[in-house]
């Protein structure tokens, strides 16, 4: 008899997230037993999915898929020295999720995550153009965990691929459990600190209020000026070849209850995305609840001449604790950062991308090349007009020359009049 997961050992319970009834999600706790009824794989976690899908009218909508109450766990496997362990759950109207674990003599770690969503679920995907199951596979970034240790991550983690963002939090998992006993020693994820706890709301990193108000005449210190963000270097590869290069400092301007300026920290930001001949997407995840996507496309400028430009930007701000969406915005009507195909675009000065009335992105020290990168280096850059100080030189020289000519003409006219007046007196 093979490994199994009995109904008594797989528990589901409803957890209310935050203070709003809109943010509800189910947590799942799975205790997989082997043939001797000993625990071989244990996991308890919460997750949510943000999915962008195409509608029948050929536009795109964003939707959120949560775990539902009718979760099953068929197909989970204990694993051994030669076979990977598998944690699998099924939920809702034809949706499923699984992760397999591999091991060495000393450690285990997650390998691949497979997520399948069914667009026939009209409650989640109304008016979806594509019907049926869609499968997304991503590589897990979980660090190796010592055997007999339990992996714990209270803070939010993200995986992005193919218009899907998978969000996880309050994760506890141990694969290849030995002797049926869950380990007492924890291996914590990078995002967790020794004081992290799932009941304490996280602070927003790199956030500065744009304005403050004092309610009493008590002495106060002046608000610290908001510094420009650090510049990050990002790249994408197609196989072993670099296909996209980006250097930029990013700052979000969020207008909610209070205006907030959020500097994106490049030291904690990872880059993902796709490269193509006519479309490229750069997705940035700051590891701290901010997801930013830039989409570039190629257009025919004139004749056989082609240019690329920024067409779409989407931003999602998430609660690090429970994965709930604080703010989400998308603008697919940009026509900025254009340059000839095969070159790069540069703008050192500050630029502003208005996503909607409540969200803007400020860019600094921008240098981008989304297509035809060669030798892992930027091609010759086309600079924005804000940077092109050389334009001022001919303008100043031209103005000076025009002024000089005007003075000469006026002097000549005055001189002629005086000469003519003198001639008449004679």
What does this entry look like structurally?
- The protein is mainly β and 426 residues long.
- The chain is built from one helix and 27 strands.
- Strands 1, 2, 3, 4, 10, 11, 12 and 13 form an eight-stranded mixed beta sheet that branches. Strands 14, 15, 16, 17, 24, 25, 26 and 27 form an eight-stranded mixed beta sheet that branches. Strands 18, 19, 20, 21, 22 and 23 form a six-stranded antiparallel beta sheet that branches.
- 30% of the residues are buried.
Features:
about 425 residues, mainly beta, eight-stranded mixed sheet, 27 strands, about 50% strand, disordered N terminus
Brief overview, please?
The chain is mainly beta. It contains one helix and 27 strands. A hairpin with a 3-residue loop joins strand 5 and strand 6.
């Amino acid at each position: 008899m093979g490994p199994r997961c009995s109904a008594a050992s797989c528990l589901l319970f409803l957890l209310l997230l935050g203070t709003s009834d809109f943010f509800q999600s189910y947590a799942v706790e799975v205790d997989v037993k082997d043939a001797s009824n000993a625990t071989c794989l244990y996991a308890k976690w919460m997750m949510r999915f943000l999915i962008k899908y195409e509608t029948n009218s050929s536009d795109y909508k964003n939707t959120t898929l949560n775990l539902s109450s009718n979760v099953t766990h068929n197909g989970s496997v204990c694993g051994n020295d030669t076979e990977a362990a598998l944690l699998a759950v099924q939920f809702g109207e034809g949706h499923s999720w699984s992760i397999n674990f591999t091991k060495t003599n000393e450690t285990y770690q997650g390998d691949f995550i497979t997520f399948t969503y069914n667009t026939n679920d009209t409650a989640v995907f109304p008016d979806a153009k594509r019907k049926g199951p869609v499968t997304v596979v991503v590589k897990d970034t979980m660090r190796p965990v010592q055997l007999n240790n339990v992996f714990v991550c209270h803070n939010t983690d993200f995986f992005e691929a193919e218009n899907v963002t998978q969000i996880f939090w309050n994760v506890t998992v141990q694969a290849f459990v030995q002797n049926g006993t869950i380990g007492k020693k924890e291996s914590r994820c990078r995002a967790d600190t020794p004081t992290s706890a799932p009941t304490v709301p996280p602070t927003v990193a790199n956030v500065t209020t744009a304005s403050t108000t004092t309610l009493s005449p008590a002495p106060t210190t002046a608000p610290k000026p908001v510094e420009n963000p650090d510049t990050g270097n990002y790249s994408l590869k197609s196989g072993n070849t670099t296909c996209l290069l980006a250097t930029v400092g990013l700052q979000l301007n969020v207008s909610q209850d209070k205006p907030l300026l959020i500097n994106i920290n490049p030291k904690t930001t990872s880059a993902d995305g796709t490269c193509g001949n006519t479309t490229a997407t750069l997705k940035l995840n700051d590891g701290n609840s901010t997801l930013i996507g830039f989409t570039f496309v190629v257009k025919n400028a004139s004749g056989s001449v082609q240019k690329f430009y920024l067409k779409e930007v989407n931003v999602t701000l998430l609660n690090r604790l429970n994965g709930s969406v604080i703010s989400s915005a998308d603008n697919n009507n940009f026509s900025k950062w254009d340059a000839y195909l095969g070159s790069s675009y540069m703008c050192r000065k500050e630029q502003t991308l208005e996503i909607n009335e409540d969200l803007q992105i400020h860019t600094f020290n921008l240098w981008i090349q989304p297509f035809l990168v060669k030798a892992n280096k930027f091609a010759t850059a086309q600079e924005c007009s804000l940077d092109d100080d050389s334009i001022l030189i001919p303008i100043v020289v031209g103005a000076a020359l025009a002024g000089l000519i005007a003075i000469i003409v006026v002097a000549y006219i005055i001189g002629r009049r005086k000469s003519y007046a003198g001639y008449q007196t004679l």
